[in-house]
Amino acid sequence: MSISLQPLAIGPLRVEWPVFLAPMAGYTDAAFRSLCLEEGCGAVVTEMVNAYGLVVGHVRTEHYLDTWPMEHPIGAQIYGSDPAVMEEAAGRIAALGLFDFIDINAGCPMPKIRNRGDGAGLMKTPELLAEITRRVKAAAGPLPVTVKTRIGWDADSIHVLENTAGVEEAGADALFLHGRVAMARHSGPANWGLLAEVKRARRIPVIGNGGIRLPEDALRMVAETGVDGVMVGRAALGNPWWFRQLRWLAANRTPPLPSVEDVRTLIREHLDREVMLMERRGPKDLKLGVELTACLVLRAHLVRYLRGFRGIRTLAVHLEERQDKATLLGRIDEVLATGRRAGPSAAEPDA
Questions:
Q1: N or C, fewer C-beta in 10 Å, the chain?
Q2: Which residues share a beta bridge with 140?
Q3: Alpha carbons 144 and 75: distance in angstroms, whole number
Q4: pLDDT per position as a tens digit, 172-214
Q5: Architecture of the domain defined by 260-337
Protein backbone atom coordinates (compact mmCIF):
# COMPACT_ATOMS: atom_id res chain seq x y z
CA MET A 1 0.00 0.00 0.00
CA SER A 2 1.61 3.24 -1.13
CA ILE A 3 0.21 6.01 1.11
CA SER A 4 2.27 8.98 2.13
CA LEU A 5 1.89 10.54 5.58
CA GLN A 6 3.02 14.12 5.22
CA PRO A 7 4.44 16.39 7.94
CA LEU A 8 1.64 18.21 9.73
CA ALA A 9 1.43 21.79 10.98
CA ILE A 10 -0.63 22.28 14.15
CA GLY A 11 -0.44 26.01 14.55
CA PRO A 12 3.29 26.77 14.89
CA LEU A 13 4.10 23.14 15.77
CA ARG A 14 5.42 20.90 13.00
CA VAL A 15 4.85 17.16 13.49
CA GLU A 16 7.11 15.36 11.05
CA TRP A 17 5.32 12.01 11.30
CA PRO A 18 1.62 12.57 12.16
CA VAL A 19 1.05 9.31 14.04
CA PHE A 20 -0.02 10.06 17.62
CA LEU A 21 -0.24 7.86 20.69
CA ALA A 22 -3.68 8.36 22.23
CA PRO A 23 -4.00 9.33 25.89
CA MET A 24 -5.10 6.29 27.94
CA ALA A 25 -5.67 6.52 31.68
CA GLY A 26 -3.49 4.12 33.58
CA TYR A 27 -1.23 3.39 30.63
CA THR A 28 0.29 6.37 28.86
CA ASP A 29 2.62 7.73 31.50
CA ALA A 30 6.04 9.12 30.61
CA ALA A 31 7.69 5.68 30.72
CA PHE A 32 5.41 4.16 28.10
CA ARG A 33 5.14 7.31 25.98
CA SER A 34 8.90 7.68 25.71
CA LEU A 35 9.29 4.06 24.62
CA CYS A 36 6.68 4.58 21.90
CA LEU A 37 8.50 7.67 20.65
CA GLU A 38 11.73 5.71 20.48
CA GLU A 39 9.96 2.98 18.51
CA GLY A 40 8.74 5.42 15.86
CA CYS A 41 5.65 7.17 17.21
CA GLY A 42 5.37 10.72 15.87
CA ALA A 43 3.89 12.50 18.90
CA VAL A 44 2.34 11.66 22.27
CA VAL A 45 -0.23 13.03 24.71
CA THR A 46 -0.35 12.71 28.50
CA GLU A 47 -3.00 10.83 30.37
CA MET A 48 -5.97 13.12 30.92
CA VAL A 49 -5.30 15.65 33.68
CA ASN A 50 -8.07 16.99 35.90
CA ALA A 51 -7.96 20.76 35.43
CA TYR A 52 -9.43 21.44 38.86
CA GLY A 53 -6.90 19.19 40.58
CA LEU A 54 -4.11 21.02 38.79
CA VAL A 55 -5.43 24.45 39.76
CA VAL A 56 -5.77 23.58 43.46
CA GLY A 57 -2.29 22.03 43.54
CA HIS A 58 -3.21 18.39 44.04
CA VAL A 59 0.18 16.67 44.06
CA ARG A 60 -0.99 13.42 42.49
CA THR A 61 -2.63 15.35 39.67
CA GLU A 62 0.57 17.26 39.02
CA HIS A 63 2.44 14.00 38.54
CA TYR A 64 0.30 13.25 35.48
CA LEU A 65 2.39 15.99 33.86
CA ASP A 66 5.69 14.22 34.55
CA THR A 67 7.70 13.86 31.35
CA TRP A 68 10.75 11.96 30.19
CA PRO A 69 13.88 13.79 28.97
CA MET A 70 13.63 14.74 25.27
CA GLU A 71 10.00 13.58 25.16
CA HIS A 72 8.76 15.56 22.17
CA PRO A 73 6.46 16.36 20.50
CA ILE A 74 4.12 16.06 23.47
CA GLY A 75 0.73 17.47 24.34
CA ALA A 76 -0.83 17.86 27.79
CA GLN A 77 -4.49 16.84 27.86
CA ILE A 78 -6.81 18.52 30.36
CA TYR A 79 -10.43 17.83 31.18
CA GLY A 80 -13.15 19.76 32.95
CA SER A 81 -16.25 21.83 32.21
CA ASP A 82 -15.58 25.09 34.04
CA PRO A 83 -14.11 27.58 31.52
CA ALA A 84 -12.27 29.59 34.18
CA VAL A 85 -10.65 26.49 35.67
CA MET A 86 -9.70 25.14 32.25
CA GLU A 87 -8.20 28.52 31.38
CA GLU A 88 -6.09 28.65 34.53
CA ALA A 89 -4.94 25.06 34.10
CA ALA A 90 -3.87 25.80 30.53
CA GLY A 91 -1.89 28.81 31.70
CA ARG A 92 -0.08 26.77 34.31
CA ILE A 93 0.79 24.07 31.78
CA ALA A 94 2.10 26.64 29.31
CA ALA A 95 4.27 28.16 32.02
CA LEU A 96 5.99 24.82 32.68
CA GLY A 97 7.74 24.99 29.31
CA LEU A 98 7.56 21.19 28.95
CA PHE A 99 4.80 20.78 26.39
CA ASP A 100 4.34 21.43 22.69
CA PHE A 101 0.54 21.72 22.66
CA ILE A 102 -2.50 21.55 24.95
CA ASP A 103 -5.37 19.19 24.23
CA ILE A 104 -8.94 19.58 25.49
CA ASN A 105 -10.66 16.30 26.34
CA ALA A 106 -14.17 16.39 24.87
CA GLY A 107 -14.43 12.70 24.18
CA CYS A 108 -13.82 10.56 27.28
CA PRO A 109 -16.83 8.19 27.43
CA MET A 110 -16.35 6.93 31.00
CA PRO A 111 -19.60 7.45 32.96
CA LYS A 112 -17.94 9.14 35.94
CA ILE A 113 -16.45 11.72 33.55
CA ARG A 114 -19.20 12.25 30.97
CA ASN A 115 -22.11 12.26 33.44
CA ARG A 116 -20.82 15.39 35.17
CA GLY A 117 -20.45 17.23 31.87
CA ASP A 118 -16.72 16.68 31.39
CA GLY A 119 -15.09 14.73 28.57
CA ALA A 120 -17.71 13.46 26.14
CA GLY A 121 -20.32 15.32 28.17
CA LEU A 122 -19.11 18.54 26.54
CA MET A 123 -20.58 17.35 23.25
CA LYS A 124 -24.03 17.96 24.74
CA THR A 125 -23.11 21.61 25.47
CA PRO A 126 -21.40 22.83 22.27
CA GLU A 127 -21.50 26.49 23.31
CA LEU A 128 -19.67 25.63 26.52
CA LEU A 129 -17.11 23.58 24.59
CA ALA A 130 -16.50 26.53 22.28
CA GLU A 131 -16.10 28.89 25.24
CA ILE A 132 -13.62 26.53 26.90
CA THR A 133 -11.68 26.35 23.64
CA ARG A 134 -11.52 30.15 23.40
CA ARG A 135 -10.31 30.56 26.96
CA VAL A 136 -7.77 27.74 26.81
CA LYS A 137 -6.45 29.21 23.56
CA ALA A 138 -6.10 32.62 25.21
CA ALA A 139 -4.20 31.14 28.15
CA ALA A 140 -1.94 28.83 26.15
CA GLY A 141 0.26 31.59 24.79
CA PRO A 142 2.33 30.29 21.88
CA LEU A 143 1.21 26.68 22.38
CA PRO A 144 -1.32 25.34 19.87
CA VAL A 145 -4.60 24.02 21.23
CA THR A 146 -6.28 20.85 20.03
CA VAL A 147 -9.61 19.22 20.86
CA LYS A 148 -10.13 15.47 21.14
CA THR A 149 -13.76 14.52 20.64
CA ARG A 150 -16.11 11.95 19.11
CA ILE A 151 -18.63 11.88 16.30
CA GLY A 152 -21.56 12.17 18.70
CA TRP A 153 -23.16 11.34 22.03
CA ASP A 154 -25.22 8.39 20.76
CA ALA A 155 -26.61 7.12 17.47
CA ASP A 156 -29.46 9.66 17.65
CA SER A 157 -27.25 12.62 18.57
CA ILE A 158 -24.54 12.95 15.95
CA HIS A 159 -23.72 16.64 15.66
CA VAL A 160 -20.04 16.39 14.90
CA LEU A 161 -20.10 18.82 11.98
CA GLU A 162 -21.72 21.52 14.11
CA ASN A 163 -19.57 20.84 17.18
CA THR A 164 -16.30 20.84 15.29
CA ALA A 165 -17.28 24.02 13.46
CA GLY A 166 -17.72 25.65 16.85
CA VAL A 167 -14.31 24.70 18.19
CA GLU A 168 -12.65 25.65 14.90
CA GLU A 169 -14.24 29.10 15.08
CA ALA A 170 -13.17 29.34 18.74
CA GLY A 171 -9.53 28.97 17.74
CA ALA A 172 -8.65 25.27 17.93
CA ASP A 173 -5.57 24.45 15.86
CA ALA A 174 -6.45 20.79 15.18
CA LEU A 175 -8.99 18.07 15.96
CA PHE A 176 -8.48 14.52 17.16
CA LEU A 177 -11.68 12.77 16.12
CA HIS A 178 -12.79 9.33 17.29
CA GLY A 179 -15.15 7.63 14.85
CA ARG A 180 -17.51 6.18 17.48
CA VAL A 181 -20.25 7.76 19.60
CA ALA A 182 -19.67 8.13 23.32
CA MET A 183 -22.27 5.53 24.28
CA ALA A 184 -20.44 2.91 22.21
CA ARG A 185 -17.19 3.66 24.03
CA HIS A 186 -14.72 1.36 22.21
CA SER A 187 -17.07 -1.27 20.81
CA GLY A 188 -18.43 -1.73 17.31
CA PRO A 189 -17.13 -0.36 14.02
CA ALA A 190 -15.80 3.17 13.77
CA ASN A 191 -17.57 5.44 11.29
CA TRP A 192 -14.78 6.48 8.98
CA GLY A 193 -17.31 8.03 6.61
CA LEU A 194 -17.99 10.76 9.16
CA LEU A 195 -14.26 11.27 9.64
CA ALA A 196 -14.07 11.98 5.92
CA GLU A 197 -17.03 14.41 6.10
CA VAL A 198 -15.45 16.37 8.94
CA LYS A 199 -12.12 16.46 7.14
CA ARG A 200 -13.77 17.95 4.06
CA ALA A 201 -15.68 20.51 6.13
CA ARG A 202 -12.92 21.79 8.40
CA ARG A 203 -9.96 24.02 7.56
CA ILE A 204 -7.83 22.90 10.51
CA PRO A 205 -6.10 19.50 10.53
CA VAL A 206 -8.18 16.46 11.45
CA ILE A 207 -6.44 13.45 12.98
CA GLY A 208 -8.49 10.25 12.82
CA ASN A 209 -8.91 7.82 15.72
CA GLY A 210 -10.87 4.60 16.20
CA GLY A 211 -11.01 1.29 14.39
CA ILE A 212 -7.26 0.96 13.92
CA ARG A 213 -6.01 -2.50 14.82
CA LEU A 214 -3.05 -3.20 12.54
CA PRO A 215 -0.53 -0.77 11.03
CA GLU A 216 -2.18 -1.41 7.66
CA ASP A 217 -5.42 0.03 9.07
CA ALA A 218 -3.74 3.37 9.74
CA LEU A 219 -2.70 3.69 6.12
CA ARG A 220 -6.15 2.61 4.99
CA MET A 221 -7.79 5.25 7.20
CA VAL A 222 -5.67 7.97 5.60
CA ALA A 223 -6.44 6.67 2.10
CA GLU A 224 -10.19 6.34 2.66
CA THR A 225 -10.88 9.48 4.68
CA GLY A 226 -8.17 11.98 3.76
CA VAL A 227 -7.40 12.72 7.41
CA ASP A 228 -4.15 14.51 8.11
CA GLY A 229 -2.85 11.93 10.57
CA VAL A 230 -3.87 9.08 12.84
CA MET A 231 -4.10 8.56 16.59
CA VAL A 232 -3.57 5.05 17.92
CA GLY A 233 -4.54 3.75 21.34
CA ARG A 234 -5.07 0.17 22.49
CA ALA A 235 -3.37 -1.32 19.43
CA ALA A 236 -0.08 -0.03 20.85
CA LEU A 237 -0.51 -1.42 24.38
CA GLY A 238 2.06 -4.13 24.90
CA ASN A 239 3.28 -3.41 21.39
CA PRO A 240 5.30 -0.18 21.05
CA TRP A 241 6.88 -1.83 18.00
CA TRP A 242 3.55 -1.12 16.24
CA PHE A 243 4.86 2.33 15.34
CA ARG A 244 8.06 1.00 13.84
CA GLN A 245 6.04 -1.51 11.83
CA LEU A 246 3.90 1.30 10.41
CA ARG A 247 6.97 3.21 9.28
CA TRP A 248 8.24 0.11 7.49
CA LEU A 249 4.89 -0.43 5.79
CA ALA A 250 4.72 3.19 4.69
CA ALA A 251 8.13 2.69 3.07
CA ASN A 252 6.83 -0.44 1.26
CA ARG A 253 9.03 -2.70 3.35
CA THR A 254 8.01 -5.84 5.25
CA PRO A 255 8.08 -4.95 8.95
CA PRO A 256 9.98 -7.23 11.32
CA LEU A 257 8.22 -8.78 14.29
CA PRO A 258 9.76 -8.28 17.75
CA SER A 259 11.88 -11.21 18.91
CA VAL A 260 11.61 -12.74 22.36
CA GLU A 261 14.76 -10.84 23.29
CA ASP A 262 13.20 -7.60 22.03
CA VAL A 263 10.25 -8.20 24.34
CA ARG A 264 12.49 -8.96 27.32
CA THR A 265 14.67 -5.89 26.75
CA LEU A 266 11.76 -3.52 26.36
CA ILE A 267 9.90 -4.82 29.43
CA ARG A 268 13.04 -4.37 31.53
CA GLU A 269 13.57 -0.85 30.19
CA HIS A 270 9.92 -0.01 30.84
CA LEU A 271 10.23 -1.14 34.45
CA ASP A 272 13.46 0.80 34.93
CA ARG A 273 11.73 3.95 33.70
CA GLU A 274 8.76 3.38 36.01
CA VAL A 275 11.19 3.13 38.92
CA MET A 276 12.83 6.41 37.91
CA LEU A 277 9.44 8.11 37.64
CA MET A 278 8.43 6.88 41.08
CA GLU A 279 11.67 8.20 42.55
CA ARG A 280 10.39 11.71 41.79
CA ARG A 281 7.46 11.25 44.16
CA GLY A 282 7.27 11.80 47.88
CA PRO A 283 6.66 9.13 50.53
CA LYS A 284 3.00 10.18 50.93
CA ASP A 285 2.36 9.15 47.33
CA LEU A 286 4.23 5.86 47.67
CA LYS A 287 2.94 3.91 50.63
CA LEU A 288 4.50 0.75 49.18
CA GLY A 289 7.81 2.37 48.27
CA VAL A 290 9.38 3.06 44.90
CA GLU A 291 10.10 -0.45 43.66
CA LEU A 292 6.83 -2.14 44.62
CA THR A 293 4.80 0.76 43.23
CA ALA A 294 6.68 0.66 39.92
CA CYS A 295 6.03 -3.09 39.66
CA LEU A 296 2.32 -2.49 40.29
CA VAL A 297 2.18 0.16 37.57
CA LEU A 298 3.84 -2.19 35.09
CA ARG A 299 1.35 -4.94 35.91
CA ALA A 300 -1.32 -3.53 33.59
CA HIS A 301 1.11 -3.64 30.68
CA LEU A 302 2.49 -7.11 31.28
CA VAL A 303 -0.54 -9.11 30.19
CA ARG A 304 -0.31 -7.27 26.87
CA TYR A 305 3.45 -7.53 26.42
CA LEU A 306 3.22 -11.26 27.04
CA ARG A 307 0.04 -11.97 25.12
CA GLY A 308 0.54 -15.07 23.01
CA PHE A 309 3.19 -16.68 25.23
CA ARG A 310 2.33 -20.12 26.53
CA GLY A 311 3.16 -19.35 30.14
CA ILE A 312 1.11 -16.15 30.50
CA ARG A 313 -1.52 -17.79 32.71
CA THR A 314 1.11 -18.75 35.25
CA LEU A 315 2.21 -15.13 35.56
CA ALA A 316 -1.37 -13.86 35.65
CA VAL A 317 -1.98 -15.85 38.84
CA HIS A 318 0.73 -13.82 40.59
CA LEU A 319 -0.09 -10.35 39.22
CA GLU A 320 -2.25 -9.45 42.21
CA GLU A 321 0.65 -10.14 44.54
CA ARG A 322 3.11 -7.48 45.69
CA GLN A 323 6.36 -8.35 43.97
CA ASP A 324 9.75 -6.71 44.04
CA LYS A 325 11.66 -6.07 40.84
CA ALA A 326 13.85 -9.18 40.96
CA THR A 327 10.90 -11.49 41.60
CA LEU A 328 8.78 -9.95 38.85
CA LEU A 329 11.57 -10.05 36.28
CA GLY A 330 12.27 -13.67 37.15
CA ARG A 331 8.66 -14.61 36.53
CA ILE A 332 8.66 -12.69 33.25
CA ASP A 333 11.75 -14.63 32.13
CA GLU A 334 9.93 -17.87 32.95
CA VAL A 335 7.01 -16.85 30.71
CA LEU A 336 9.30 -15.80 27.87
CA ALA A 337 11.08 -19.16 28.08
CA THR A 338 7.80 -20.97 27.29
CA GLY A 339 7.76 -19.44 23.79
CA ARG A 340 4.90 -18.14 21.71
CA ARG A 341 1.93 -20.26 20.78
CA ALA A 342 1.76 -19.08 17.18
CA GLY A 343 3.72 -15.87 16.83
CA PRO A 344 2.71 -12.51 18.31
CA SER A 345 -1.05 -12.26 18.64
CA ALA A 346 -2.98 -9.49 16.97
CA ALA A 347 -3.28 -6.16 18.70
CA GLU A 348 -6.46 -4.98 20.39
CA PRO A 349 -8.71 -2.48 18.62
CA ASP A 350 -7.68 1.13 18.95
CA ALA A 351 -9.07 3.21 21.82
A1: N
A2: none
A3: 9
A4: 999 999 999 877 778 788 899 999 999 999 999 999 999 999 9
A5: Orthogonal Bundle (1.10)
